[in-house]
Amino acid sequence: MLRMTVSRLTSTSPSAATLSTPFSWWSVSYQTPFMKSMNNPRRFPLFFCSDSNPISTIDSTQESSSKQGNLKSGLYLVGTPIGNLEDITLRALRVLKSADVILAEDTRHSGKLLQHYSIKTPLLSYHKFNEAQREQSILKRLIDGEIIALISDAGTPGISDPGSELAKLCVEANISVIPIPGPCAFVAALSASGLSTEEFSFVGFLPKNASARRERLMVSANEAATQIFYVPPHKLSQFLEESSDIFGDLRRCVMAREITKMHEEFWRGTLGEAKSAFFDRQPKGEITFLIEGKPFCEDETPSEAQLESELGALISNGHSLSSAVKLVAAGSSMKRKTIYSLALRKFGKQHDGLNDVD
Prior knowledge:
This is 16S rRNA (Cytidine(1402)-2'-O)-methyltransferase. It comes from Helianthus annuus. The strands form 3 sheets. The chain has a 5-stranded parallel β-sheet. Helix 8 packs across helix 9 (236-247) and helix 11 (304-316) crosses helix 12. The protein folds into 4 domains: 3-48, no CATH class; 74-182, Cobalt-precorrin-4 Transmethylase, domain 1; 187-291, Tetrapyrrole methylase, C-terminal domain (Methyltransferase, Cobalt-precorrin-4 Transmethylase, Domain 2), CATH 3.30.950.10; 304-356, no CATH class. Helix content is 35%, strand content 20%. It has 13 helices and 13 strands. The protein has 358 residues and is of the alpha/beta class. It has helices at residues 14-17, 33-38, 90-98, 107-116, 131-143, 164-172, 185-193, 210-221, 236-247, 271-277, 304-316, 321-330, 336-347, and strands at 3-8, 24-31, 42-48, 74-78, 101-104, 123-125, 147-151, 177-180, 200-204, 226-231, 252-257, 265-270, 287-291. Residues 1-66 and 349-355 have low confidence and may be disordered.
């Protein structure tokens, strides 16, 4: 009978101290009954590797002798933790260690992440206020064959964060753009929301302009897919007031706050309940807000009062009668001519002739 014992070589082992390979080395002893009696076990090194050749995050001495390793030149979009520093992949760490430079929104913020993982790659600030000035110099470095990693303060670059424009420029210049998947707040929130994940629309941050914001909410309110928004905490009350007015108080929703962090919170209920719950309480931290899609059975004809309210709100925000009618008709089963007739009767815009209506 053959018996084997596997144990990892420690840093105090003479043979371990001379290893320069990035592979993990282990000592394997095996004995047969005869050899056991001779007390003469055989030992040999065993190593494991993979095509991606990851660098261990535990043993900092096992780094590739080549700075770039197996990575090709290009722009690497690296997902980083949205809260918990453990939420980062081995591949992401390898790319960040191997890159010639790391583009970061806030170098001080990202510096903490790099310090935590003993990554000494130079940082260069890249954010919405300087991305236009940085783009050409970054493209030149990429054309010269450098490896450039792009990270945001949290999550996946280019998703409501800087990066999408640089990625477009690289694609146009035939420069490789390589995604390194990682955390994303809206995906994490959706997966744990309890709402439908079969189809969803990621809206992100709403426009600052009240009229544009209302228009976007009206479009979302009439979609069957789950709607996902990023909401600054100081604007939560405004968001709930406007969305409940357009979606209705009975639409189910989920507020996901501080995902993966110490004070992570998932609040579930209806928009009406949310408006009451957060009327005098302003949560802190990053908020991802999800609203269920419009039920397929919801095809009731809106009342004249509802139509008048929607039309009046749009017109008061600067829309022409024709434009207001188009927006309201898009979310209603009623014919546009019927809505236009109501608009003429209520608001007296006789100059917008009916020939504008299909």
